[in-house]
Amino acid sequence: MASLGSFAKTVQATSNQTLDLIAKANQTSLGQAVRPFERWLYDTGSSGAVIRCRQGDRLIARLHNQLEVPTTVHWHGLRVSKGMDGVSGKFASPLVLPGETFDYQVPLRDPGTHWFHSHYDSLNQIARGLYGPLIVENFDEPVMHEQVMVLDDWTVKGTGPGAFEVDWSKLEPGLAWGHAGVKGRVLTINGSIQPRLELAFQGATRLRMLNAATGRVFRPSFENVRAWVVAMDGYTCQPFELTSSLFFGPGQRLDVLVEPMDSGRATLFLGEELFGKGTGFEFGLGVEASVSLADALHAFSPYMPLELRPDTSAHQKITLDMSEPHRDHSKGAGMVDGQWQDWSTLVDNHRYWLFNNVADNSLGPLFKGRVGETIEVEMLNNSATHHVMHFHGQHVQIKSSSSAEHEVGSFRDSITFEAWSKATIAMKLDRPGLWPLHCHILGHQVSGMFTHYEVT
Ligand SMILES: [Cu+2]
After folding, report:
1. CB-based burial, 87-99: b 16+ in 10 Å, e otherwise
2. Predicted pLDDT at 34
3. How far is the CA of 120 from the centre of ligand 1 (A)?
4. How many angstroms is it from 328 CA to the middle of ligand 1?
5. How far apart are CA 351 and CA 347, in angstroms?
6. Closest Cα partner for 367 from 377, 359, 358?
7. Nearest 5°: phi and psi at 90?
8. Residue 288 C-alpha to ligand 1 middle, in angstroms?
9. DSSP states of 369-417 as a string?
10. What is the pLDDT at residue 273?
């Protein structure tokens, strides 16, 4: 039976009201195939709501930590000030202990589909459900039927439907971190195996898709709908028709305008690279359309905030090399705390990934720059799996890429790199602080792929 699942309700937040965001445990079910279990959620009056705000407003969110562990909230896709980013320690955002509260001030500069999630023990806390969609409305875009779609996967044990049990042990350090990351066998949309998804008939629906999985790069494709991509990572782009599928990495958002065709059932397939078209999720057609697809598409054009536009010549050029520990390097396999280590020492300590030969940011910032400077980063994926590079603090512009799926000229907060691909990005530094840069395949983040940069 189809269920509304999570994210069926919406709370509208405005500048003059504090929104209570309660992190707590709930008994939940993903559907009949999986036994009920304890899931962690943000409650805003109803558990697991979509937060909607307006561009130009300020979100004031009061986190109440009712969990038994510390936590934080990261505002993914929103350009916040130092201390509000949800990364604790030297990154200056407080760790919110059990029973404590903290007020986050989130300026809503950039419209689009964004999200918020824990950034403390993130692999574990995001896997358990501590995330939610955050939509910043743009008044210039046409009003139409919308469907929020939060994609996730769940690690389970057991022998089959009805007997599956969610299995948190897969989050423990293990070889999955050294490969494609931790991936679950059970896929959900809005927390349900059989979600109720509704399209408008004879007109446009805006799908606001979010990949909240900790390790799975989805390849979404549609059947019996016309589908046009209008935004990636919240940033609107020149609309293009989605005729096959594309890489949709953890942390990323994808806005697609769809219109059902006359024949056949409208279906979204969530596949993976090389594994066919994947699990199908069918749409119902229950809502009358307010705008045609053709008219709706006219209203979308690339969003490029002036203050983020990099200068044509960079003040600094940096290289970021993503690799596994080296088996044949003369000095050693990789560095931790300034020391070269051999391959088995790194792997025994679950250090499976390196940035510029270094695991865990242990040589200090990747670069230091001043506000106003333009930094160019050549990003090389010298490995046989995907990585999703997520920039905190500033957003970046893709300047060139070896991948046909990277829209050159577009702005992003996250970029999915296919195996052995590379891209050059440029960023204009506009907010002081220490800002993380890490892989959003969270098993990679905790096994070496975490660094930072410093803006003064
Ligand atoms: Cu990675």
Report:
1. bbeebebeebeee
2. 87
3. 18
4. 21
5. 5
6. 377
7. -70, -10
8. 42
9. E-TT-EEEEEEEE-SSS-EEEEESSS-EEEEEES-TTS-TT-EESEEEE
10. 66
226 neighbors 145 (Cβ within 8 angstroms):
no
Amino acid (1-letter code) at residue 391: F
Which pLDDT tens digit goes with each residue over 404-431? 888 899 999 999 999 999 999 999 999 9
Q: Residue 341 has which token pair?
A: 């280590």
φ and ψ at residue 426, rounded to 5 degrees: -130, 145
Element (H, E) at 347: helix 343-348
- What is the Å distance from ligand 1's center to 167 Cα? 22
What is the torsion angle, in degrees rounded to the nearest 10, for the CA atoms of residue 402, residue 360, residue 272 and residue 259?
-80
Distance 216 CA to ligand 1 centre (A): 11
Phi, psi of 62 (to 5 degrees): -100, 105
Q: Which residue has the tokens 């051999």?
A: 342
For tokens 């230091």, the residue is 368
* Residues in contact with 251: Cβ distance below 8 Å, sequence separation at least 6, in sequence order: 76, 211, 388, 390, 414, 440
Task: Name the residue among 426, 440, 334 with its Cα closest to residue 387.
Answer: 440
Distance 123 CA to ligand 1 centre (A): 13
178 CA → ligand 1 middle, Å: 9
Pairing of strands 205-211, 145-154: parallel
pLDDT in tens, 365-410: 999 999 999 999 999 999 999 999 999 999 999 999 999 888 899 9
CA torsion sign for 318, 321, 325, 326 is negative
Cα(189) to centroid(ligand 1), Å: 23
Cα 452 from Cα 92, distance rounded (Å): 13
Contact status, residue 193 vs residue 151, Cβ threshold 8 Å: no
Residue 394 · residue 431 · CB < 8 Å: yes
Domains of the chain, first to last: 10-140 (2.60.40.420), 148-298 (2.60.40.420), 306-455 (2.60.40.420)
On the 0-12 / 13-18 / 19+ scale of CB atoms within 10 A, 246 is middle
d(CA 391, CA 282): 34
Whole-angstrom Cα distance, residue 445 to residue 269? 28
CB 145 within 8 A of CB 205: yes
